[in-house]
TrEMBL record:
It comes from the Bacteria. NCBIfam families: cyt_tran_rel, PRK13670.1. Belongs to the TmcAL family. This is tRNA(Met) cytidine acetate ligase. Signal peptide: none annotated. Catalyzes the formation of N(4)-acetylcytidine (ac(4)C) at the wobble position of elongator tRNA(Met), using acetate and ATP as substrates. First activates an acetate ion to form acetyladenylate (Ac-AMP) and then transfers the acetyl group to tRNA to form ac(4)C34. The gene is tmcAL. GO terms for molecular function: ATP binding; ligase activity, forming carbon-nitrogen bonds; tRNA binding. The keyword Ribosomal protein does not apply.
């Protein structure tokens, strides 16, 4: 069986995602669609509005055949680590193609990646001109890329596309995996609004409409399964205020030295975080705190991720160790996906995990387990289900 891979967050699943799946099948002629999906926290450092199991089920009801969790140590990261982690998992699953949306689908991203500036993205101290405090590292890198290739890398999906290409090249997968960009449809990645005649809206605009209680606006931009979830709002995230209360406790009680041990706490950021939290009268909300901390050097996403690492007490050595032990955590499959897994599991070069016990939760999956517990603390509704221990993959009989 031929498999195509896609990288997703589904926060929440909408018509644009449905189009993505349909195009992935059409372009590649694949029998099986494998989605690598962020777990309970997404790349920008925010909790997903529905848990990973709920989002996996909706994906399986709408054309995906296997959902693999992108572990926290890859999912909540800058784009170059996020994309490399996703490519690594999809390659291990034996996909022949990766299909992704792009604002410039005609660009040869693999060639672009090969001609990119040779900068160690994970080590800012090695970057020379990239230490300019007046701009973010991402902006500085995009400028250097434009100078060397003529391509301006600024649109979110193009940044991810470039990351996939860079990962394929770095991991030596050019003969194994074809990269297939498709033109992003209508809604922009960060669009906050959509019109009544639109059938595709951004996940950002859908979350905003949900937050404002305007569920009637969502009827035409999400499939029925998502519509039902949004209407029930059972076990969703009431994010900012409880998150801020927990985070503020950490920021106020931890010393600057303790904060300095947190992953990605570089360039004295711990001093800024502590000073802003301890100041008088002090920020009254999560958003006001981020705005107070924000500077030209740090993106909002960088700050949000660092704050999540702080709340979860994820230290540098813990993250680095976890990233060396990648695995394939199966969240769910269709009968066709199950058949594919039965054939391929004998040849996998990464551990395949279908059930988690406490021993595994405290070792290999310790960061995902911690993220799941934190998500449960932030979730609303009664009887929020366990996220890891004793959970088994979902089997969805319905196929589209």
């Amino acid at each position: 069986m031929k498999a195509v891979g896609i990288v997703t967050e589904y926060n929440p699943f909408h018509n644009g995602h449905l189009y993505h799946i349909e195009q992935a099948k059409k372009l590649t002629g694949a029998d099986v669609v494998i989605a690598v999906m962020s777990g309970n926290f997404v790349q920008r450092g925010e909790p997903a509005i529905f848990d990973k199991w709920t989002r996996a089920q909706v994906a399986l009801q709408n054309g995906v055949d296997i959902v693999i969790e992108l572990p926290t140590f890859f999912a909540v990261q800058p784009s170059h680590i996020f994309t490399e982690g996703a490519v690594k998992l999809l390659a291990a699953m034996g996909v022949e193609d990766i299909v992704f949306g792009s604002e410039h689908a005609d660009v040869d991203f693999l060639t672009l990646a090969k001609n990119a500036p040779d900068v160690q993205l994970s080590k800012k101290s090695d970057a020379g001109n990239f230490k300019d405090k007046k701009q973010t590292f991402a902006s500085a890198y995009a400028h250097e890329l434009e100078m060397s290739t003529g391509f301006k890398l600024e649109d979110p999906n193009d940044i991810l596309a470039f990351g996939y290409a860079r990962a394929v090249s770095k991991l030596g997968l050019e003969s194994q995996i074809n990269l297939r960009p498709i033109q992003r449809m209508s809604a922009g990645y960060h669009d906050k609004t959509f019109t009544e005649d639109q059938k595709i809206a951004s996940a950002s605009s859908i979350r905003l409409a949900l937050h404002k209680g305007k569920l009637e606006k969502l009827a035409d931009v999400v499939p029925n399964e998502t519509k039902a979830l949004l209407s029930s709002s059972a076990n969703t995230i009431n994010f900012e205020q409880p998150f801020w209360q927990l985070l503020k406790y950490r920021l106020v009680t931890d010393t600057v030295g303790q904060l300095g041990q947190i992953y990605q706490m570089a360039e004295g950021l711990e001093h800024r975080l502590s000073a802003m939290a301890l100041g008088e009268p002090g920020p009254q909300s999560y958003q006001s705190y981020i705005k107070a901390v924000k500077s030209k050097r740090y993106t909002f996403a960088r700050i949000q991720r660092t704050l999540l690492y702080t709340l979860a007490n994820i230290k540098v050595d813990q993250m680095q160790a976890a990233m060396q032990d990648a695995y394939l955590r199966v969240l769910g499959f269709t009968p066709l996906g199950q058949q594919y897994l039965n054939v391929t599991k004998k040849h996998l070069d990464l551990p395949l995990i279908s059930k988690v016990d406490m021993s595994l939760a405290k070792s290999n999956l310790r960061l995902d387990y911690k993220a799941g517990k934190l998500w449960q603390m932030l979730a609303t509704g009664d009887n929020v289900p366990q996220q890891d221990v004793s959970r088994v993959p979902i089997l969805v009989e319905k196929e589209k």
